[in-house]
Design brief:
There is one protein chain. The protein is α+β, with helices and mostly antiparallel strands and about 375 residues long. About 20% of the residues lie in helices and about 20% in strands. The protein has 6 helices and 18 strands. The strands form 5 sheets. It has an 8-stranded mixed sheet. Strands 10-15-12-13 form a 4-stranded antiparallel sheet, with no helix packed on it. The chain is globular. It starts with about 25 loop residues before the first strand and ends in a 32-residue tail after the last helix.
Length: about 375
């Protein structure tokens, strides 16, 4: 990526501090009981696990899972293929570059909060093709198909991706069941939303950066979907904004663990019982970093709104309904150009704030 272009430089208040605060207290949750044939035979053990999940979602919005059931060899296979792909010359990688028509594939000029990220990525959707709205216009019912682009090299990338995606999908459903139970809902309460899911996997590569005090691998943001499952290498760099004091803290890499975070959709479904938490990625001046996030997202036609069971006269809905597909493609559009306005957020649909945001950005319903 060469010298630090001004496009990468964060505003002064958002520049990372090179003195790192290690995260203490982010929960480690052992999921081994879910992989046991008699997992449901001991209700007290399940209750304890559900309670752990609920506390982690409420107090942190992030947690790590171990003994999660995803075969290590499948993760390693995709990590190896990812490294091979990104090691190619730029001229080879851009053969599968994404654009406003082909929105999946390789990309190296993504922006977060209108500042360019110090990274390159490759996106694949779990369902191929994935169906999404044709436009952001609220009255337009037309849909289009997003198709994955597969590079010629490495040839094993597609198989590695498909095997890994299948395992991460299974884990996502298990986690959604635990989250539902922790909210006092039936375990399968959210399953139906993912029948025609818009989930995707991203391969991230962060090259060494000569100015890690000015740029970020990914700027501060919250994940718009339901759930994110992150595999990161031993270099690390993920920072979470601690809810208790707003301090940025580093999530230390743990071999073979996954980092889970609650997305905006769960914040809405839970009517803010759980909150999506801001996070970002620091870059390293000496070492490159790789990570693989899995974004578990519902079908495009999903109307996201607080769950009826979790609202009442004393606890009224805090968000008005919005169409996930329209929201998704509005957000996607910002990947390809710097916007003159702040990108759309769920806060724009918060009922107490509607009066302040009745503008064109809300035309996704």
């Amino acid at each position: 990526m060469g010298e630090v272009d001004p496009a990468f430089i964060q505003e002064l208040e958002h520049r990372p501090k090179l003195s790192i605060i290690e995260a203490e207290g982010i929960p480690f949750i052992d999921l081994s009981m879910l992989n046991s044939p008699d997992a449901v035979s001991d209700p007290s053990t399940l209750d304890s696990l559900v309670s752990e999940i609920g506390n982690a979602c409420k107090n942190w919005g992030f947690f790590q899972v171990i003994n999660h059931g995803v075969p290590l060899e499948q993760r390693r296979k995709l990590e190896k293929a990812s490294r091979k792909f990104f090691a190619q010359p730029w001229e080879e990688k851009v053969k599968v570059r994404r654009d406003e028509v082909k929105v999946l594939g390789y990309y190296d000029t993504e922006h977060t909060k209108n500042v360019r990220d110090w990274k390159e990525v490759f996106d694949f959707t779990v369902q191929n093709p994935t169906i999404v709205p044709a436009s952001t216009h609220p009255d337009d019912k037309e849909v289009v198909e997003w198709h994955n682009q597969w590079p010629d090299y490495p040839h094993e990338l597609r198989e590695a991706f498909e095997e890994y995606a299948e395992e991460l999908e299974k884990l996502s459903y298990k986690l959604m069941e635990l989250i539902a139970l922790s909210l006092g809902l039936p375990a399968d309460r959210f399953h139906g939303f993912f029948k025609d899911q818009t989930s995707f996997i991203r391969l991230n590569h962060y090259s060494p950066c000569p100015a890690p005090d000015l740029a970020l691998g990914v700027g501060r943001h919250k994940d718009a979907g339901a759930l994110t499952i992150l595999a990161q290498d031993d270099v690390g760099g993920l920072q979470v904004k601690r809810k208790s004091d707003g301090e940025w803290i580093r999530v230390k890499p743990t071999p073979d663990a996954f980092i889970i975070n609650v997305g905006d959709i769960i914040q809405v479904w839970s009517n803010e019982t759980y909150e999506s938490v801001e996070h970002r990625v620091m870059v390293n001046s000496e070492r490159e970093r790789f990570s693989i996030p899995f974004f578990f997202n519902p079908a495009h036609y999903t109307i996201v709104m607080p769950s009826e069971e979790l609202t009442s006269e004393k606890n009224p809905p805090r968000y008005r309904p919005y169409n996930w597909g329209k929201f998704l493609i509005t957000r996607k559009g910002s990947n390809f150009k710097k916007l003159d306005v702040k990108n759309i957020q769920i806060q724009h649909f918060r009922i107490s704030e509607l009066a302040d945001h009745l503008d064109g950005a809300l035309s996704v319903i």
